[in-house]
Amino acid sequence: MRKIVRKIAKGAAYTVGGLLGAVALYGVAAVVLSAIPVGERSQPGPDKIEAYILSNGVHTDLVVPVRTEQMDWSQYVRYADTPAADSSMQFVGFGWGDKGFYLNTPTWAELKPSTAIRAMFWLSTTAMHVTFHHRPEEGPECARFYLTREEYGRLIDFIKTSFCPGTQGEAQHIRGHSYGRHDAFYEAERTYNLFYTCNSWANDGLKTARQRACFWTPFDNGIFWHYPELEPAPLKKAVAQLTGKAKSRQPRPVGQ
Question: Looking at the whole model, is its pTM more than 0.85?
Fold first, then answer.
């Protein structure tokens, strides 16, 4: 009997140790690979298109003008899909993520283990979160960059191909869900997992547009490391986030 108990205890110890090791390895990889820069940050210039990366401290959105000569996003994701239907908003933000998180977890305080497990291990579907804005204000969690027509065209294609289109090629609105007055959800392509998160998606968008980004990151701070004038202590923040010692925040919608 004692031998059986010892074997069970030994197996449990190996399992726990393996899990802790995997978590530690994931954290180290996130820090190291996030620190490796790719691409160059574009500078202002004639005919450049103004765009932003915008974070709520957890999740990063790509924010672009609603209308340019190349794309009128209001014809694809309509103002009328949001509760406010406010057509005065001049910018629109796009975020991609796990559908369960977006629709069933309004705040982090309401996160269920089952939702987290499904998201981490390729067991759930995804959604696009679209938010209309007035011009964003640069700050610790908002950075501006500039795109040429060619770069913006690449970003347009990246964003559009992240939507799961309907039979007529339209964005499929998920009715009855929003976090506020100016946002809406749509069906999306791809699968969320530990290695391709909402922030990985935003980082890939920057890469596609040939902007400064990181080699790989699952976290928003990984992206902002490469905009140092906005993030005075990125390493400290990253370590705090990985160790669970980040400064507490008021509950807020997961996708905002």
Answer: no
